[in-house]
C-alpha cells in the first residue's frame, strides 16, 4: 500500500477548491501524504466530450451554481463565482509544478491560498504578474515562478500530466486516487475518509 494519495485538480474547479482546503489535513490524519497533481480540465473535457458545469443547459447550470454556493456555505468557506468563469489555469499549474521542485512542502499552502483568493474574488488567478507577487509574499522567488510559466520544461510536464490523468480515467475534479481506488467530487470526502480509516471497504 502506497503512503501517497494522488490528488488531481484544476485551480478553476469550485469543487476542487473546497476539497483543496481540507485534503492535506485529512491525509495527515491517517499518516498519508498528498501528491499534488495539477491538470487542465479543458484538456480532459476535449477527450471526454464534456463541458464545464456552468456552461451546460440553463436548467443544469443554474442548479450547479446554486450547489457550489451551498456546498461552500456547508464547508464554512467563502464563495463568489468569479467573472469571467471558467478561465484557463495553465500558468497557475506550471507554478505548482515549479514549486513541487523548489519548495514541495509549500505546495499545499500555495494551492489553498490561490484558490481561496480566486473564489473569494476578485483575484488574478493565472495572471503571471499576480502569481509572481503571490509567490513573493510567500517568501519564495516570484521572478522564478513567473519564468516557470513560460518554461518549456513545465509546459511539457503539464501536458504529460493531462495525458496521465486521461489515461487513469480522470474526467473531472477533484479526483482522488488512494490505494488504486478513485473518488470523484468533493461530496465523496466522507467515503474517502472511511477508506483511509479502515483500509478499504
How many helices in DSSP terms? 9
Strand order, sheet with most strands: 2-1-3-4
Secondary structure: number of strands: 4
Question: What oligomeric state do these chains adopt?
Answer: single chain
Please give the CATH class.
Alpha Beta
Judging from the principal axes of the Cα atoms, what is the shape?
globular
Distance between the termini: 15 Å
Mean pLDDT: 95
| Class from secondary-structure proportions | alpha+beta
- How many domains? The number is 1
CATH topology descriptor: Glutaredoxin
SSE series:
EHEHHHHHHHEEH
Strand percent estimate: 5-15%
Q: How much helicity do the residues have?
A: 55-70%
Low-confidence stretches: none
Indicate the radius of gyration in whole angstroms.
Answer: 16 Å
Name given to the CATH architecture: 3-Layer(aba) Sandwich
Task: Outline the structure in words.
56% of the residues lie in helices and 10% in strands. The model has no long low-confidence stretch (mean pLDDT 95). It has helices at 14-29, 41-48, 58-75, 90-102, 107-120, 128-137, 142-148, 152-167, 189-198, and strands at residues 4-9, 33-38, 175-178, 181-184. The longest helix is centred in the N-terminal third of the chain and has 18 residues, at 58-75. α2 crosses α8. With 201 residues, it is α+β, with helices and mostly antiparallel strands. It has a single domain (4-198), classed as Glutaredoxin, CATH 3.40.30.10. The chain is globular and about 45 Å long.
